[in-house]
Amino acid sequence: MLPDEQASPEQIEILRRMTPAQRWRAAHNLYWTMRRHKAAYLQSIHPDWSPQQVSDEVKRIFMNARS
After folding, report:
1. pLDDT digits (tens, 9 = 90+) for 47-59
2. Computed over its alpha carbons, how large is the radius of gyration of the chain?
3. Is the N end or the C end of the chain the one with fewer CB atoms within 10 Å?
4. 62-to-2, 12, 65, 66 alpha-carbon distances in Å
């Protein structure tokens, strides 16, 4: 992990105050936001792709993602 990727003490405190349901919702929202961003990026670099092609590629990318 890069130094600027580490959570600040303030961020850690906010996360600790959240309920598990709130943390789940935040993670869920982040996941779907990143899928929308990836789809928009793919559409921008492949304007000739159909919405289905973009969707299929987003699915493929996220299925093969590693952390």
Report:
1. 999 999 999 999 9
2. 16
3. C
4. 22, 27, 5, 9
- Buried-exposed string 3-33: b where 16+ CB fall within 10 A, e elsewhere: eeeeeeeeeeeeeeeeeeeeeeeeeeeeeee
The pLDDT tens digits for 29-51 are 999 999 999 999 999 999 999 99
Q: Report the greatest alpha carbon distance in the chain.
A: 46
Round to whole Å and give the CA distance between 28 and 40: 19
d(CA 40, CA 27): 20
Cα(44)–Cα(32) distance, integer angstroms? 18
